Amino acid sequence: MATSSGTWSYRDRFHESFGRTYFRRFGDGLVSSIGIGTYLGDPTDAVDEQYHEALVTGLENGIDAVDTAINYRCQRSERVVGRALADADIEREEVVVATKGGFVPFDGERPDDPGQYVLDEFVEPGILPRDALVRGTHCIHPDFVDDQLDRSLENLGLDTIDLYYVHNPETQLAERSREAVYDQLEAAFERLEERAAAGDINHYGVATWDCFRVPRGADSYLSLPEVVTRAREAADSAGNTATHFRAIQLPFNVVMADAFTVEAHETPEGDKSALAFANDAGLDVFTSASIAQGELAERLPDEVAARLQGDTTAQRAINFARSAPGVTCSLVGAKSADHVAENVAAGTFDPLGADAFDAVFE
């Protein structure tokens, strides 16, 4: 797993090539503030090879944060991440590896009959209780989380996953009450606390799409303070002295800035945005969709672009995302070595300071 000494060693090897605050605190170690995501692309051998080259390029040139999920590209993304970790000229202890479980994954390719596949692979063997499945695609029952974590460890070829996310828990709100989803999360967290104590994961969190950045009362809303409370209760139930709940992942970019602007999370000091609450609670934030899946690589609003440093539009978009207060790392999907080189070069420029970032919204 990633260690303090390993990530500091990685930083020492690369930090002179980058601007200030490129490497940021994560737990007792460090992580690059630009990471590689592995979501997009068809489940083919050709795309596997593109990702492999991109990942090795990133790992060998200053990116030590890799994000994937078991359902990405029918488990192929996890497997190619594992291959890249083995092939790159880096040490395992230098890299923060994150993955996710929650969406039912296919294996290698999309089956002709997805519903029958889910029944045969997960429901009939008792891995996934039928009544825990939402929309035929999503489950966060503890037994399913256990199974998915085991498969992810195998896919990645790792003994320990640094950060394991419960993936898009708001999906459960389609068929369950908000209180029932909090209960489900607490049960999943308790299982993850047990797996952390066993050494299978180092930290866990929740990776979300919209639940933390919509107004309170929206159909897809979940309270981040309540989720943190449930994690603490899960740690107590598991007999751990402190929770291993460490991070959240959510979209954040120039055109999706709700995590900074929408004050939806109730605290004794008043309502706060997801980013503000996470920062105050000591949670790390990993941003997804940092260049809006490529959309912001073409154009940024002129008034925003003028404030940002970077040689390309994509670099300026990345530097906006990693300038937000409380952001630990901004993830950018890249399946070509050229794109990775462009993305990592964004880190040679300084991000906006807090006052300059706030001024964007004035």
Automatic annotation (TrEMBL):
Keywords assigned: Coiled coil
Pfam families registered for this protein in UniProt: Aldo_ket_red (PF00248)
TM spans (from-to): none
Signal peptide coordinates: none
Coiled coil: 175-202
UniProt key word Ion transport: no
Top-level taxon in the UniProt lineage: Archaea
Ranges of residues in domain NADP-dependent oxidoreductase: 34-210
Name listed for the protein in its UniProt record: Predicted oxidoreductase
